[in-house]
Amino acid sequence: MSFWLAALAAALALTLPTGWEAALTGFAVASSALAYLLWRSGLAQLRRAGAVHMPWPGAAPLTRSALDEATALIEDCCARTGGFEAALHGVAHILKTELGALQVVVYRVLGADETHARVSELIDTPPGFQSTEHRVHLRHSALGRAIVAQRASLDTSGAVVLPVPGPGGVVAAIEMTGMQIDIDEDALTTLLTLAQAQLAERAEPACKSRRPLRGGQRCARLGENA
Q1: Domain at 184, CATH number
Q2: Is the dihedral of CA 86, 68, 109, 131 positive or negative?
Q3: Nearest to residue 114, comparing CAs of 139, 146, 150, 142?
Q4: 137 and 78, same structural domain?
Q5: What is the pLDDT of residues 53-71, one digit of tens each?
Q6: Per-residue pLDDT tens for 62-119?
Q7: Total domain count for the chain?
């Protein structure tokens, strides 16, 4: 509506008698600015909506037996993939497909202090690429709380986080948002616990196989500065 009001004011400024041009032009500019702000606000609202749990209406919740295929796929993925990061991305893809998540992000946990964890997003293509390191609060975010608890969690915001423990603490995490399928909570917990155990087995040898870093650094772990 603001956009069309701006267009109408601009048209009237060209057709009405002399004396109204400045007022109508100012009104058109103000309406255009309002239209832009409303558009940006709408985009932000859509992004926030992606993180809200919105199951399909009328669909029966998935039970443990319905997730048997997902369980088998995760076990097969972890057994066949060549490395820890490949297993992370493979399990993340399976969970996104089977659980109906709108967005799935894989993180490498680089270390943590008393209040924040240092993480970077792992990008599937090219393999091994990760984004710039950033900090997440351990108490005020779903990802941070899952890292502290070291177990899979379903947050009140609708985010599902699967932390992956390694030698000494959490070394990676998978975060899912915008769940579109209603799932029985016990069945979801069972599936995520299995996925966590499978990935944890891959995490330990991957961590041990890294070459020692300068200064005696070790694999990043919770509560340790990497």
Answers
A1: 3.30.450.40
A2: positive
A3: 139
A4: yes
A5: 444 454 556 677 778 888 8
A6: 677 778 888 899 999 988 877 899 999 999 999 998 888 889 999 999 988 889 999 9
A7: 2
Q: Could you tell me which residues come within 8 angstroms of residue 54 by beta carbon, excluding any fewer than 6 positions away?
A: 158, 178, 179, 180
User: Is the separation of the CB atoms in 169 and 49 below 8 Å?
Assistant: no
Strands (DSSP E) found in 138-189: 153-154, 160-166, 169-179
Alpha carbon distance 171, 42 (integer Å): 36
> Cβ contacts of residue 18 below 8 Å, gap of 6+?
none
Whether residue 122 is found in the same domain as residue 69? yes
Query: CA-CA distance, 51 to 179, in Å (whole number)?
Result: 8
CA distance 224 to 226: 6
Under a CB-based contact definition with an 8 Å cutoff, are residues 152 and 173 in contact? no
Residue 18's domain comprises: 2-49
